[in-house]
Amino acid sequence: MKKVLILLIITLISTPWLYAQSPVEQEIKKLSMDKWQWMADKDVAKLENLFDDKAKFVHMSGSWKKERELEIIETGSIWYKNAEVHDTAIEVSGNTAVVWNRITLTAFVRGNDVENEFTVTEVYQKQGDDWKMLVFTFSSVRDTHEIEH
User: Fold this and answer.
1) What phi and psi, each to the nearest 5 degrees, are found at residue 61?
2) For the segment 55-73, what is each residue's pLDDT rounded down to a tens digit?
3) Facing residues of 125 across strands?
4) Which run of H or of E encompasses 130?
5) In what residue span(s) does the DUF4440 domain sit (predicted)?
6) Are 24 and 97 in contact (CB under 8 A)?
């Protein structure tokens, strides 16, 4: 019994370390979360700086490049009102980072508020001192979908 209790205590103490994020992962996670707020605020100046000039965007209604995404956000033809992030996984390899966010997105589209469950894939590349988004893809999922860590 004593061994089981000690093992349980060690497991509980060490579990947070298994999920600890590196400084780069923390930086990428903050950038990803900031991006959701910038989209809600329609802050195209900050988004223009974040999006690489060759970035691609994939949505339920189509795919396009940076200029069109910024136009959509600025005009409010899609207003990303709120992204409730339920789970995030980040993998970094060299100067590339991939982020998966499982979200419930509330958006104003074609005159209506809509709510959808997505897993959003974001690909970032370190360019000089800045991270630039190269890919932003929405995948429609059920609310029971889980991101494998």
Assistant:
1) -100, 0
2) 999 998 889 999 999 999 9
3) 96, 132
4) strand 130-140
5) 30-133
6) yes
What is the biggest distance separating any 2 CA atoms in the chain, rounded to whole angstroms? 65
Collapsed DSSP state (helix, strand, coil) of residue 49: helix
Q: In this structure, is the dihedral angle defined by the CA atoms of residues 61, 36, 31 and 149, taken in order, positive or negative?
A: negative
Q: How many helices (H) and strands (E) does the chain have?
A: 4, 6
Question: What six digits make up the tokens of 115?
Answer: 């709510």
**CA distance linking residue 73 with residue 60, whole number of Å:** 15
pLDDT tens-digit series, residues 74-102: 999 999 999 999 999 999 999 999 999 99
> Two tokens at 116?
């959808």
Domain map (residue ranges) of the chain: 22-140
Residues 97 and 31 sit within 8 Å (Cβ to Cβ)? no
Report the DSSP beta bridge partners of residue 89. 100
State the pairing for strand pair 130-140/51-59. Answer: parallel
Please give the angle made by the CA atoms of 70, 126 and 79, to the nearest 5 degrees: 20
The topology under which CATH files domain 22-140 is Nuclear Transport Factor 2; Chain: A, (3.10.450)
Q: Tokens 């189509």 identify what position?
A: 62
